[in-house]
Automatic annotation (TrEMBL):
Any Pfam family the entry gives: 7tm_6
GO function terms (MF aspect): odorant binding; olfactory receptor activity
Membrane-spanning parts: 126-151, 183-205, 269-289, 295-318
Protein name: Uncharacterized protein
Native organism: Anopheles minimus
Upper classification of the organism: Eukaryota, Metazoa, Ecdysozoa, Arthropoda, Hexapoda
Principal location: membrane
GO cellular component, one term: plasma membrane
Subcellular location: Cell membrane
Length: 390
């Protein structure tokens, strides 16, 4: 049976591997223009440039131009995520390092908090399998689409509509050059999605761990406040322990607020790019499904939908955990504290009423209500595009 720190290390190693594969260097000692980063930047420029050129080539056919731009929104979103992560390398390292030292290293098997820590370490580990399986599952469907078309229709086709200038993909050599480049795009893009989205899940799940540890300590403190030795002020040891635990709870709440504020700042522009690019990407692939028989659009649509939904599920988890913490503070027996601690409790409760969590560029929170509004907007955009094409 794995321990909490082993679950954490296995999950963190996935992030470091993804970062190393795409040259992000978030946890590497070397910083600047490394070989991996230059390779990733080159692929980003080539991906966007080749899609723009292919769209220009098929500009006289609306359906072929749509097919050529089925992944352009995903590429733009990944580019924004990539540069955002590189720019905020130090905050990412700080948050991940704090989680390890303040939770998984501090609370070992002998501590009372260990079951809570191990539960979240296991959840984080399982979430990694689910997210990696989902992204590579859609990637596998896209890969087998050309094989399906070849064996059923006898027709050769690319993985997706992105051509190389002056390379004829209808001949054998040109076909394998184009497909090899497309596979490189796919692998790099999937690793980038895993890095950013799993890192978002990493911070979300560990933020929930921070909250539940504080709630655990509030429950312990509530039991101490109910002891006769504290109520009658006859036990100096119990009074000192209460004071120490109360100061610890204040510190932990301050740490939670700072953690979520930093996390929100990191993902603010990423969420905006994710929403904007996913809406247009989903709309394009829905049009392709309705108007053509290009089966790869189903896999691309599934990947885009999952990528968009993951962020809102994680945002809703944060919102739910913040609400749970507020409920725990409201139910806390504050009337058993002395006058000075009661004043501190009022300030604590006042701060807890201010919302914390992810937002879309500070405009709106990332939750289910916002997700519903975006789905309505997506349907309206899709209907408008269908009427235009008809």
């Amino acid at each position: 049976m794995r321990s909490a720190i082993e679950y954490y290390n296995a999950s963190f190693n996935r992030l470091k591997l993804s970062s190393r594969l795409i040259g992000a260097g978030l946890w590497e000692e070397k910083y600047g223009f490394t070989a991996g980063r230059i390779a990733s930047l080159t692929q980003i420029v080539m991906f966007l440039g080749l899609h723009a050129w292919t769209g220009y080539k098929y500009r006289h056919s609306a359906l072929e131009m749509l097919e050529s731009q089925s992944l352009i929104c995903t590429g733009v979103a990944l580019m924004i995520k990539y540069f955002t992560m590189i720019q905020n390398r130090d905050p990412v390292r700080e948050l991940s390092g704090n989680v390890e030292t303040e939770m998984y290293v501090k609370y070992r098997e002998t501590s009372n908090e260990y079951p809570v820590v191990r539960k979240y370490g296991r959840v984080l580990h399982i979430a990694g399998y689910i997210m990696i399986g989902g992204y590579f599952g859609s990637l596998f469907i896209i890969w087998i689409n050309p094989l399906f078309v070849y064996f059923t229709e006898g027709r050769v086709m690319l993985l997706f509509s992105c051509e190389i200038p002056y390379v004829d993909w209808t001949v054998n050599r040109g076909y394998w050059i184009t497909v090899t480049l497309q596979i490189a795009f796919y692998v790099t893009g999937t690793c980038g999605l895993i890095l950013v989205d799993y890192l978002c899940a990493f911070f979300t799940i560990n933020g929930s761990l921070y909250v539940d540890i504080l709630r655990f300590h509030l429950d312990e403190l509530s039991e101490l406040l109910a002891e006769p030795g504290y109520q009658q002020r006859t036990s100096p040891n119990v009074i000192e322990k209460v004071n120490r635990m109360w100061r610890n709870c204040l510190f932990e709440h301050q740490r939670i607020v700072g953690y979520y504020d930093k996390f929100s700042d990191l993902w603010s522009m990423i969420n905006l790019a994710q929403v904007g690019c996913s809406v247009f990407g989903i709309c394009i692939n829905m049009l392709l499904i309705m108007l053509t028989e290009w089966y790869a659009a189903y896999a691309i649509l599934f990947a885009l939908f999952v990528d968009l939904s993951v962020h809102f599920v994680l945002g809703a988890i944060i919102e739910r955990k913040v609400d749970d913490l507020h409920i725990s503070l409201v139910h806390f027996p504050w009337h058993l504290l002395d006058d000075r601690r009661q004043k501190e409790y009022k300030l604590l409760l006042l701060r807890a009423q201010q919302p914390s969590g992810m937002s879309i560029a500070g405009l709106t929170p990332v939750n289910y209500e916002t997700y519903t509004q975006i789905m309505k907007m997506l349907y309206q955009l899709f209907a408008l595009a269908m009427n235009f094409l008809k």
